[in-house]
Specification:
Layout: E1 7-17, E2 20-22, E3 36-47, E4 50-52, E5 70-75
Parallel strand pairs: 1-3, 2-4, 3-5
Length: 79
């Protein structure tokens, strides 16, 4: 059994710009589950992109895909 955990963690006063923040599971005999994305912001968010955490595709005879991951966003201005 192989276990791979991916965690993307951001702690910042501001998050600005465009783009994609992602943590996807890998493809394989059984697809890997999506990873985790955690964002902790102190002051402002001016991010106009997207967050993704998707499971990988299964390629074996059962085509078992991985489940989605989790995305957590904490804006400390609101508790």
């Amino acid at each position: 059994m192989f276990l791979h955990v991916l965690l993307t963690f951001f702690r910042s006063q501001n998050l600005e710009g465009h783009g994609v923040i992602q943590s996807h599971g890998g493809d394989g005999y059984h697809g890997g589950s999506g990873g985790r994305v955690a964002v902790y912001l102190e002051e402002e968010i001016y991010f106009f992109g997207s967050f993704d955490s998707l499971g990988g595709s299964g390629v074996g005879p059962y085509l078992t895909a991985g489940g989605p991951g989790a995305i957590y966003i904490k804006d400390k201005r609101y508790g």
